[in-house]
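Annotated sample (chain length 454).
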Amino acid sequence: MDLESLLIAASAELASGGLCKLVRLPARAGATVAPDPPLPEPLASRVAALGVTGLWTHQAEALAAAREGHHVVVSTGTASGKSLCFNLPVFETLLADRKARALYLYPTKSLAQDQLRAIRAFAIPQVSAATYDGDTPPAERGLVRRYARIVLSNPDMVHYGMLDTHTRWTELFAHLAYVVVDEAHTLRGVFGSHVGCILRRLRRVARHYGSDPRFILTSATIGNPGDLAERLVGVPFTEVSGDGSPRGERLFAFWNPPFKDGPGDEATGSRASRASSNWESARLLATFAGEGIRSIAFTKSRKAAELVAKHAKVIVADPGTSDRIRAYRAGYLPGERREIERALSSGELLGVAATTALELGVDIGGLDAVVMNGFPGTVAQVWQQAGRAGRSRQESAAVLVGHEDPLDQYYLSHPDVLLSRPFEAALVDVTNPRILEPHLGCAAHELPMAPSEV
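Output written by the structure step:
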């Protein structure tokens, strides 16, 4: 059964609620160009071996800007190949300069692990990579400092484990050619402002050791990628936002949970309440799994992720299918998270109920459907989560299951408003005194401060 028929059939089982509107978003063709000048060997042959026959236009534009020495921010849609936008210039530099190093920063450990697998898939001996985060065993951290030419970490570890002990990272800071910040759209508000201060401290320590790294930031589509990048790092950026990648056809469904005891009565003033969005999300996850359709349900809390997975297992009649549904959230042991990621990528799992820990750019090819358990909070997040499915450019479905709150119900009643709304701007303020003051203390602890720096 195709995705549209499956959603219509699942809605027909309900006495109320269900499918409010189904919108079909057309496919889009991609545009490729050859890099000029061509990629050096062995990078060119490794890229070709991975099935890349040409660069999407935004990938080529980002590569050209990085080659010219610019700081670059890439803001394109989900599954548009943003990783190549920074991997190609970094690999070129590491191959040309045997001492050069790079630092990749990610918002989640799962994304860092996914990108580590992607880097190792290139199989370039001169490009050694390793993660440095809370899951890295203490016995391995010294090896990472000495031998890894690409260190994959996160802003917290830069603050706690690198800047404070920068004398242990002399090789990295003295030869730091690139700093990559992935999923930069997550760096907003107070958290983003703190990260902005950390990046400025990172640049300061790098200058102390004689390096001046170029920054490449990648972001989902937001309203102000260039402005955000400049506010985060404090240097001018070249913005690349024209998405040249292809996209498969996508169904976007708006889904309301049914009423529990009828729609209510205006005459008596009785107010109807709807069934739990957790249960409806679980029912859709189970429906997709029962048809062999690989899907993921995003929830707003760890508890909701566990409940959706538990309910879906109960709803699915086939024990074999039930065993192929899991929850994914922070708090699991590192080995458990890696196993779920592997099973989902390989197709062993048919359904996963997850928090936003799997929302970001983890490459899970072959997913056919996404269920959003409630409006995520921003339009940008809606498209970020919806883009988890269809990464292999096959037909996909995204289903927004509304909560009872007014905003969710408004979007279910006015779906065209959500689909046509512009992306929000991401705002940071590194000059906020309550944020800046503790970072000044950290900077003074790391290196003596000149009067001009205060």
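Annotation: The CA atoms of residues 34 and 322 lie 46 Å apart.
Annotation: Residues 32-245+428-443 form a domain with the Rossmann fold fold (CATH 3.40.50.300).
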